[in-house]
Amino acid sequence: MELDKMWNEARRSGWAMGQLPYARRMDLIPYYAGQLGWEAVGTRAGEGPVSVLRPRDQAEARAETMSAVYGLDAQPLHVDGSHMIRPPEVIILVSEEPNGTPTRIWKPEPQGLDWDAARHGVFTVGAGKSAFLAPALEPDGWRYDPVIMKPADERARQVADHLNSEPNLKATEVPWDEENSVLVVANRLVMHGRAAVSESDRGRKLVRMAFNIRSAK
After folding, report:
1. Residue 75: inside a domain, yes or no?
2. Please, are residues 217 and 91 in contact by the beta-carbon 8 Å criterion?
3. Distance from C-alpha of 201 to C-alpha of 206, rounded to nearest angstrom
4. For a disulfide at 56, which of 61, 140, 170, 192, Cβ 3.0-4.6 Å?
């Protein structure tokens, strides 16, 4: 696995799929990322930069997560870490075993989207004392998660309506049909989400790692 080449491809197309160079050695990914100067970041409170993703029904899921709202149904496409002041630039997903639930990915296109509204429409991100205001499209890229971002003006409502419907028509399904598969996602360039999980695939397990390319200023 040549992480630098995979990232170059992801920067162009939004994502790149590869395989671990050694079976079940996903611990090498943070090493390779460190060699590139990337900074590992956590995306969930109380967790480090590496987390395990398993299908959960609504009753089992943590509050304010995709699974708490959508359970085993298809997740809306989103940017991981949208609740953070600085969402991570790179998301890496790893599956040691094949599974039958693809990851859906969509790269927003100019057609049909009001880009001025995306840049200037205001969303409330999160709730309570930690809530803040932000647009969906920032200088560093996209920030969107319909679970934790609520439109605060008409422009944001228009953007949310578009982002909640358009991806479902044009998203690419990336399969997990090989062992030791690695998916590198340009997290601020595209939106992604898990497809619906069948009962036979409830054992699906992905490991997620998050990184920033540039150090925080």
Report:
1. yes
2. no
3. 12
4. 61
pLDDT per residue as tens digits for the range 161-188:
999 997 777 899 999 999 999 999 999 9
What is the average pLDDT across 196-213? 95
Cβ atoms 65, 208 nearer than 8 A = no
Q: In this structure, is residue 28 part of a structural domain?
A: yes
Q: What is the pLDDT of residue 103?
A: 98
| Counted domains in the chain | 1
Does the residue 46 lie in any domain? yes
Rounded to whole angstroms, how far apart are CA atoms 189 and 171?
14
Helix (H, G, I), strand (E, B) or coil at 168: helix
The pTM score is: 0.93
Alpha-carbon gap, residue 7 to 106, rounded angstroms: 17
> 3-state class of 68 per DSSP?
helix
- Both tokens of 102, joined, read 């693809």
Domain containing 51: what range?
A: 3-212
What is the per-residue DSSP string for 63-118? TTSHHHHHTTSPPPPB-TTTTSSS--SEEEEEESS-EEEEEEEE---STT--HHHH
Q: Measuring CA to CA, which residue among 183, 186, 188 is closest to residue 92?
A: 183
- Cα separation of 214 and 217, whole Å? 9
Q: Which two tokens stand for residue 7?
A: 């990232």
Does residue 96 lie in a domain region? yes
| CATH of residue 201 | 3.60.130.10
DSSP H helices, 25-114, are 28-35, 66-70
